[in-house]
Design goal:
The chain has a single domain, classed as P-loop containing nucleotide triphosphate hydrolases (Rossmann fold, 3-Layer(aba) Sandwich). α3 packs across α4 and α8 packs across α9. The chain has 9 helices and 10 strands.
């Protein structure tokens, strides 16, 4: 564990400690530390209700933490939440765009929300990049899961964020579309964009540089997939996580 500091470390896109959130007297995120190196892809894993979405929403400035200090993209993530929001692409767990607008109209709407200069060019670029050009007039509501997810990624890339927080971006998406999505994620990381992505898929976890595993709001393990498997004395990642959650259930529930 690194030294606690208030100065921050330029090589870290996320450097937050003690992140906590309480709902109805229950701590759903409890003293979570999150460090993500710039340009890295970090997988955020954990059972349903373990606190992933709540953590992601606090990191991008959409939800006020009860406790926690640190920096996101070099900014104080609590006091400078508005600036953080402008540089982060957040993909929500559920499709959040307008089903009755076309692909292009949705992207144009998002570009307006960000008051983006050169809006048309930015939308054209996003359509091109995600292979959406030929479908630009299709209504979002008529798209299959894989195309919806591409549109959602295009929307959160429009304002050229330096950090992507992706909340189960591939849930319910077929294997081919998932693979294409991950190729895209690796390409973005190659361009220097940092990615923190939650997922329940072990094959996706294997494609991350590092993993953070959370249950009952507590971080149970972090590091490379290989290190987590080794330290848990497990056969594979799935086995490691079943063991970790078993221990956490003993420790955090009574
Ligand atoms: N606005 C809210 N009010 C009350 N409780 C909430 C609220 N948001 C989340 N919770 C609770 O906090 C806990 C953590 O929820 P969260 O959505 O962060 O989990 P998650 O890890 O993202 O789960 P999943 O894998 O199902 O998406 C859950 O018990 C959830 O019911
Ligand atoms: Mg969630």
């Amino acid at each position: 564990m690194s030294e606690r500091s208030t100065e921050g470390d330029d090589s870290l896109a996320i450097d937050v400690r003690g992140l906590s959130k309480c709902y109805g007297g229950r701590k759903v995120v409890d003293d979570v530390d999150m460090q993500v190196g710039a340009g890295r892809i970090v997988g955020f894993l954990g059972p349903n209700g373990s606190g992933k979405t709540t953590s992601l929403r606090m990191l991008c400035g959409l939800l006020t933490p009860d406790a926690g200090e640190g920096r996101v993209l070099g900014l104080d993530f609590r006091r400078e939440a508005a600036q953080v929001k402008r540089q982060v692409g957040y993909m929500t767990q559920r499709f959040g765009l307008y089903e009755d607008l076309s692909i292009r109209e949705n992207l144009d709407f998002v570009a307006r929300l960000f008051s983006m200069p050169g809006r048309r060019q930015a939308v054209d670029g996003a359509l091109e990049r995600l292979g959406l050009k030929s479908r630009e007039t299709q209504l979002a509501g008529a798209l299959s899961g894989g195309w919806k997810q591409r549109l959602a990624l295009a929307a959160c890339l429009l304002h050229r964020p330096r950090l992507l927080l992706l909340d189960e971006p591939t849930a319910g998406v077929d294997p081919k579309a998932r693979r294409e999505f991950w190729d895209q994620i690796h390409q973005l990381a190659g361009e220097g964009i940092t990615v923190l992505v939650s997922t329940h898929y072990m094959d996706e976890a294997e494609r991350c540089d590092e993993l953070v595993y959370i249950a009952y709001g507590h971080v149970l393990a972090r590091g490379s997939a290989a290190a987590i498997v080794r330290e848990a004395g497990a056969r594979d990642l799935e086995d490691a996580f079943v063991k970790l959650v078993g221990q956490a259930t003993d420790n955090f529930t009574s």
